[in-house]
Amino acid sequence: MRKKKKDRKDFKPNPPRTFYYMVFCIQNWKEWDREIDTAVQRFRKKYPVYPRILLASIITLRRIDMRVFTLHPEKLEREEP
Which of 3, 4, 22, 56 would bridge with 60, disulfide CB 3.0–4.6 Å? Predict the structure, then answer.
């Protein structure tokens, strides 16, 4: 048994979702984590939500990894021989 199709006059399309974004650059790599935190706080003041995704170039992500693993080498995933 098939379901009845809704009348076209009752059809309401979903409104488009709001897309919030902000662009920022890391100026001081010694305090990169503080700069990201400051940018997140600015984003939250400007928009009603916290950011959920951080997009960055491969070079930027490598720099962040280098800083994190230099400060916290125990977090490195080590392969067992």
Answer: 56
SS3 helix, strand, coil % of the chain, rounded to 5?
45, 0, 55
**Cα separation of 48 and 51, whole Å?**
10
Euclidean distance between the first and the last CA atom of the chain, given in angstroms as a whole number: 60
Q: What is the largest CA-CA distance in the chain?
A: 66
User: pTM for the full model?
Assistant: 0.64
pLDDT digits (tens, 9 = 90+) for 2-61: 655 655 667 677 777 788 999 999 999 889 889 999 999 999 999 999 999 999 999 999
Token pair recorded at residue 18: 């709001």
Name the DSSP letter for residue 54: -
Alpha helices of the chain — where are they, by DSSP H?
32-46, 58-71
